[in-house]
Amino acid sequence: MESLCDAAKVLKSNGVRVTPARVVLLEALHSRRGPFTAQELHANLPARSADLVTVYRFLARLVKASLAREIVGSDGVAYYEMACAHNPVHPHFECLSCGRLFCLPLFREEDSARVLDYGTGHRVESVSVVFRGTCAACLANELEEGKK
Ligand SMILES: [Zn+2]
Ligand SMILES: [Zn+2]
Ligand SMILES: [Zn+2]
Questions:
Q1: What are the pLDDT tens digits along the chain (148 aa)?
Q2: How far is the CA of 142 from the centre of ligand 1 (A)?
Q3: Which residues of 97-120 are buried (b: 16+ CB within 10 A; e: fewer)?
Q4: What is the third-level CATH fold of 1-87?
Q5: Is the overall model pTM greater than 0.85, yes or no?
Q6: Can you name the CATH fold of 88-148?
């Protein structure tokens, strides 16, 4: 398996001060299947290493530095994921039943080019595509409910 980015190095090279909590948070963001809410990332940190407000500020900093992507759900909850070469731009799926946000497979190369084409005349900095509907687990539950 391809090794992941070195969290401390990534922070340093982007002029972000390195602290143990920040390294743990960035590693969690990078190594686990996302996307994650700030609460989920906070819960993953060693106890008392950083409060939730600090986590929010750090995530905002990462997004500003284009190190992380922020995807906002229809309920206004923000989800975060790593924005490095290990996690290329891809669409997301939001379940309107359970509220979970999922990563969908990558755009195929020809699709990515087409998506960027929509910005003709404008400079595209980021692309955010969210499909909304009912997730596989909720669909299965619905079927089960229907059987009763
Ligand atoms: Zn990476
Ligand atoms: Zn669902
Ligand atoms: Zn994703």
A1: 457 899 999 999 999 999 999 999 999 999 877 899 999 999 988 888 889 999 999 999 999 998 999 999 888 999 999 988 888 888 899 999 999 999 998 777 777 667 767 777 887 777 788 999 999 999 999 999 888 7
A2: 37
A3: eeeebbbeeebeeeeeeeeeeeee
A4: Arc Repressor Mutant, subunit A (1.10.10)
A5: no
A6: Dna Ligase; domain 1 (3.30.1490)
